[in-house]
Amino acid sequence: MIQEFKDFIAKGNVMDMAVGIIVGAAFTAIVTSLVGDIINPIIALFTGGIDFSGWFYTLDGSDHASLAAAQEAGAPVFAIGSFIMAVINFLIIAFVVFLLVKMVNRIKAAAEKPEEVAPEVPSGPSELDVLLEIRDALKKA
Questions:
Q1: If both were cysteines, with which of 52, 87, 105, 117 could 81 make a disulfide (CB 3.0 to 4.6 Å apart)?
Q2: For 3-23, what is each residue's pLDDT tens digit?
Q3: Domain assignment present for 135
Q4: How confident is the model over 72-96, as pLDDT tens digits?
């Protein structure tokens, strides 16, 4: 059973998946920072100062200064800004993954494509033709 487990772990697919998960987690942190620190301020600039990260509605009608204050007070909160940020994060990650898969598929297709071999140009009779002529000449003699 231990040997089967070692064989399972040693397979390339499992190791590739583990590396993908680790890189994906790191990439998610980068995209979250991109959305929160770069994209949201740009969107806020064009929408008159609306910051999506602080956009929320309390479902009980109470007023709070920030999303954190509303959550700390225990008010039921509809945090639409957090949802919009999650959607933007997803779209960016999905687009980058699409580009990566497209690039990998292009590389795989180029690697699998047989290299074009120049057609052989006949430069006279082949060895077989010469040997057949010699054989036929010997039969006649």
A1: 52
A2: 887 777 676 677 777 778 888
A3: no
A4: 888 888 888 888 878 887 888 788 7
35 is in which domain, residue-wise? 2-119
Number of domains present in the structure of the chain: 1
Residue 109 falls inside a structural domain: yes
The rounded distance, in Å, linking the Cα atoms of 39 and 21 is: 25
Burial group, residue 131, by CB count within 10 angstroms (0-12, 13-18, 19+)? exposed
Q: In this structure, is residue 137 part of a structural domain?
A: no
Q: Which amino acid is at 140?
A: K
- Reference 101, options 20, 10, 33, 47; nearest CA is 20
Determine the Cα–Cα distance for residues 92 and 30; give it in Å rounded to an integer.
11
Count of alpha carbons within 13 Å of 137, Cβ hemisphere only? Answer: 6
Secondary structure (3-state) at 78: strand
d(CA 94, CA 82): 18
Specify the 3-state DSSP secondary structure of 113: coil
Location of structure tokens 């497209």: 102
> Does the residue 124 lie in any domain?
no
